[in-house]
Every structure is written in C-alpha cells, then in structure tokens.
Amino acid sequence: MLIAVLIAVLLLIPVTANGEEHVKKTVTRIVSSSDSLYRRFIRTVYSRNLNKFDFRNDGDGTYYVLRPNEPLEFEKYKYYWNESHRDLKEYNNICEYQVHHFIDAEELKNTYFPDGTRLKSMFFHCSFPYSCVAMECLIESRFYLAIIFVGFVFFGLYFVRRCVMKEIKQLEKIRDQCVRPQSVPGPRYMSPMFLQNEVEEPPPPSYNMVIDTAPPSYESVVRDRVTYTLPSYSAVA
C-alpha cells in the first residue's frame, strides 16, 4: 500500500533536476474557433467599451495595440503578453497560447505591441490539478491516472485479503476435523449412576389373571349358570 501511494505521488509532482525545480512551459493552440470560451474571449475582450486595447484604423482594417505591462483579465484567468512578467515568476508551470494565423480570429491576428511587433503568444497559469488546454485550464490527465492506480491497488488488496481469509477458514475446518474424536459405532454407553436411579417398571399381567378377572358372559347369566359368592363381613366393635 505504501508503494502505491509513493507511485501516485510521483505521478503528480513537478519535474525537477539537480534538486531544483525548473519552470515548465506548456504550449497550446486553439482546436476550434467555435469553442465557447474562445468566442466569449474574442467578443468580450476586443469590445471597445472595455478599453483593453488602443485602437488604430487604416485602410486595411482595425489594429489593436496592447499594453505590455497590464495583464488582460477575462473571467477567472489572467493573460500576460510575455513570460517574463513579474507575476509569472512565482509559478513553476505556465501555459503559452500561440496565435495561429490560419485558425485564430482576426482580432488576435491583428494585435500588435507598441513597437509594431505582431502578437505571437499569450501566457497564463493553471494550478494543480488543472492543466493547459487551449486558452483555459482543465483537470489534468495524470490526476485521473493517479486516482485510477490507487483504486486498482485497493481493489487488488481487497481481493487478496478475501482469498487469504477463505484459505484460512478452510485450513481451520480441516484442522478441527482432524482433532475432533470420531464416534465409534456400537451400543450406547450408559452411566452406572443412571442405571441405579432408573425405576424398574412392573411386568405385564399374565394371560390367566386376565381371564380370571374377566366378567361372565351374558349367556351364562341368562342360563343361571353363574354362582355368586357373597363376601363375609365381620362386625366392627
């Protein structure tokens, strides 16, 4: 388990060399001009009402002159015009959005520095566990990998524990069967104390006794063949 946690941490820590952390720059580009954040950015930032740029017009169209020392704030992001800006020095991981002159909007392609240099890149920062995707920050893929890896480790440990407990129960069952004395077939053993305390039942009456005490038949009584012997009573003083 400890090894799994260490591997998960290694998947998440930034790249280091010679014991010092180096600034990691991730280059991104727009995937599609129909992206919702991208369209909101162009429609909002380049609005004349916000006064984010200095506007210049000539025969070829409108040009936008940026202000190098002022970051461009849009929604929850801050976009910088160069990577050496003082606000970016505290970060070890920055994102560089490169302007593509075939995909990006006309506003970005017509954005210039005050010295007349065309804008090529914008820079912003994404905090963990987010990574740079186009002009925004999304959940980093290695964060999901770390969670999936730890989940597999937990599942493996649970499966191994179940198998081990099942084997232990089977071994205990076999051990109990070997230690327990087996019953020997034969007459049931009875304690002498039980035999002494047992009350003997009288035997059943004999056949002749049953016949002698039986009443006379009806036919014998009718034919007056039955004699009665009256019991003798003695006077009681």
UniProtKB/TrEMBL annotation:
One Pfam family hit: CX
Annotated protein name in UniProt: CX domain-containing protein
Source lineage: Eukaryota, Metazoa, Ecdysozoa, Nematoda, Chromadorea
Keyword Amino-acid biosynthesis: no
Domain CX: 79-138
Keywords from the named record: Membrane, Signal, Transmembrane, Transmembrane helix
InterPro entries in the record: CX
Domain of life: Eukaryota
Endpoints of the signal sequence: 1-19
Residues spanning the membrane: 143-160
